[in-house]
Design a protein that fits this description.
The protein has six helices and no strands. The longest helix has 27 residues. The termini are far apart.
Length: 118
């Protein structure tokens, strides 16, 4: 049942974002920033952690979850290191995800022939 809940939750998030992309004139980059900032704001409000506990990876994998991870990292790092944690915490908490995105993106570019859209 956990897999079904995660699948449906992630699917609903992606469907809502697709509707946002189709119905507004916002560029994809701005929508991505909006999602990350929304995830961080929901983490700040204390809403996103209970949602992740209920939905599992369906809530933690999309960009909303990435924003929440950044917020949690900054919050913990500020408590440990003070103001310096503002700059270090988010990167420290999300380093594995950022690194894997870069590595797999590079491997994909090596395997396939990337080209510009016409």
């Amino acid at each position: 049942m956990d897999y079904v809940k995660a699948f449906l939750t992630g699917g609903v998030i992606c469907a809502l974002v697709q509707i946002l992309m189709d119905k507004t004139k916002l560029m994809p980059g701005r929508i991505m920033v909006l999602l990350v900032c929304t995830g961080a704001a929901l983490g700040f409000l204390g809403v996103y952690e209970p949602f992740i506990s209920w939905a599992g990876t369906g809530a933690s994998v999309p960009l909303l979850g990435f924003g929440n991870t950044l917020f949690k990292g900054v919050k913990e790092s500020i408590q440990e290191q003070g103001a310096l944690g503002l700059f270090l915490g988010g990167l420290k908490a999300s380093a594995a995800g950022i690194s894997s995105a870069l590595i797999f993106g590079y491997l994909g570019a090596l395997i396939f022939e990337p080209k510009m859209k016409d």
